[in-house]
Amino acid sequence: MPEESIQHINFDELDRKAISSPLVSHIYTADPSAHVFNGKIYIYPSHDVDAGDAFDDLGSHFAMEDYHVISMDHPEANAVDNGLALHVNDVPWAEKQMWAPDAHEKDGSYYLFFPAKGYDGVFKIGVAISDSPTGPFTPQPEAIKDSFSIDPAVYKDDDGSYYMYFGGIWGGQLQRWRTGSFNAAEPESPFAHLPGNNEPALCAKVTRLTDDLLEFAEPAKDVLIVDEAGHPLLQGDNDRRFFEASWLHKYNGKYYFSYSTGDTHYICYAIGDNPYGPFTYAGRILNPVVGWTSHHSIAEYKGDWYLFYHDSSLSKGVTHLRSIKVAKIEHDENGYIKTLDPYQDLKVLV
What we know:
The chain is an all-beta fold and 350 residues long. It is 2% helix and 37% strand. The strands form five sheets. Strands 5, 6, 7, 8 and 9 form a five-stranded antiparallel beta sheet that branches. A five-stranded mixed beta sheet has the order 14-18-17-16-15, with no helix packed on it.
């Protein structure tokens, strides 16, 4: 992911026009997965570090190696870093790249779901458990059987079922699993094995979890996103098709699947009638932020809805040194989400 020019950006002006400020500034954080447990907000982000890796479209410069849990008493409260929750060195099967995680609670235990590359260079998804939402977390000795790719997001439905959404193209390797097994050909190319622009877009995956939240209860299925006519979005529809960063929330009985479009930098969403979809494309939640990536979560707190996201403003535009933020969002009378401009209409990416 080559760095885009930031020479034209006045970061003092950008910060003044930003709709929110970094929640923490002593470390770099990204990919915030937010949940409300026992009336308190817990955020499970990536922990960005500058490891000196080369910038490329495989994301090698995203060399994160551990997780910290951030907590807030309410959305306007100061954010607290609760320290080291899990390190890659404690995960027997994982070698590197602890990318975007998520977490959930069941019966008083807390489960951290995280992607990492194994020693074979293949991304898988692991689980770690704690009796506290802030950790520390104890990892399972093996990755989840049949897991692959990145960006796990776990949703608990009203009936008590838990679903995991996951997947990401390019460096997330989703395109290498199109045949059901990992295609290792052309390892240096993030574009190899993608569908053609006029073919249906690659989909995120969804599966129900077992009762202990440690395994897939069923083979993963495609999360199909369609247009208003019911046609699957195409791979060349870069402004709307799925790239990475799955999330699910429920509003007024409808299921909202939201995601990042990656190389076009939008957070978009689609609406469906059940956790499996199909989901009909409905619009954008967040316009582009400073930095190449955009990744988010959505959580409800006391009847209001909040978007947790990140940008690279604190590092003055360094793509892999990001900072998590939060902003209030609104669903209109028809259930559509009002699009947010992260810098109050300041056009920073032109």
